[in-house]
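pipeline stage [seq->struct] | target=Epoxyqueuosine reductase QueH | organism=Maridesulfovibrio salexigens | residues=184
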Amino acid sequence: MSSKRILLHACCGPCSITTIDALRDQGFEVSAFFYNPNIHPLQEYLRRREGFLEVCEKMNVKVIGRLDEYDSKKWFRNAAFREANRCFHCYADRLERTLSLAKRGGFDFYTTTLLYSKFQQHERIAELGKDMAGKSKCEFYYYDFREGWKEGIERSKEMEIYRQQYCGCLFSENERYENDLKKN
């Protein structure tokens, strides 16, 4: 009996570790895809991409898709004047791109490491993923990967994978550090 094939959208290396384990434990053959035009600046994007590649190499996960696909201008156009709802547009862009690649690659399912983070809008991501899949042959696979949160943190430290301090976009970076403006 062959494994079910799943395409995992990965936002970074640390969020991928226990997500990959959970999917494999459930019988999936996992391939990973890194598509995150929301991550700024470009230097931060490159650090996260490198962390993702390190995890995939160490965990023997096939990476598919173009690793140079980074259209920050498109991302900023989508976020402009929608700052309050920027996360929805960001999730939609990444899930839509992942689903498209999963369909072309003949995957049975697709999912995302965004379901791992305690800082993301979990229910919204799950609903969006299911809605996008609709009645296509490639289903969105929902799982609460937050169960592996603490273990993922520890393992990423053990593996010496770069750990970021904000979601990725400039808005989230500002939110993360805005209290520093009030110091002094």
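stage status: PASS
auto-comment: The helical segments are 14-25, 42-59, 72-79, 86-104, 122-133, 149-158, 170-177. The first strand starts at residue 4 and ends at 10.
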